[in-house]
Write a structure and sequence with these properties.
Elements lengths: L4 H5 L15 E7 L4 H11 L5 E8 L5 H6 L4 E3 L7 H15 L3 E4 L7
Parallel strand pairs: 1-2, 1-4, 2-3
Length: 113
């Protein structure tokens, strides 16, 4: 896969990396008001079927704060409006940077980034 992938990536100007699956990837989950994707990811993570390290959950609503905190995962509420969108996105990037996240999963996060 690693040897053949440059041929696929080049026409799309893709940057990519391969990771050792034995080392869980650091993930930030983002969710809005619909929690079914978040709940599914948390369940699979909890039973060991999804070998990731969830370093934070970001949401523009408080709906799933208790669910996240009950899993001992840091929850970050960042409200987004037309007026504060650039600042909100900067705060999200601060969380990604400070947690050293390698992947952001939009678990029904309903904002255009």
């Amino acid at each position: 896969l690693e040897a053949g992938f440059p041929e696929v990536a080049e026409p799309f100007a893709m940057t990519y990396a391969f990771h050792d699956s034995a080392t869980p990837m650091k993930v930030v989950l983002m969710v809005s008001r619909f929690g079914h994707c978040l709940n599914d990811i948390l369940y699979r993570w909890k039973i060991g079927a999804l070998p990731i390290d969830i370093v934070a959950v970001v949401s523009n609503h408080f709906d799933y704060q208790k669910v996240v905190v009950n899993h001992d995962i840091p929850f970050h509420h960042i409200p987004v409006t037309k007026a504060n969108k650039p600042e909100a996105e900067a705060r999200i990037m601060e969380i990604v940077t400070s947690t050293r996240a390698e992947l952001i999963v939009l678990a029904r996060y309903m904002q255009v980034l």
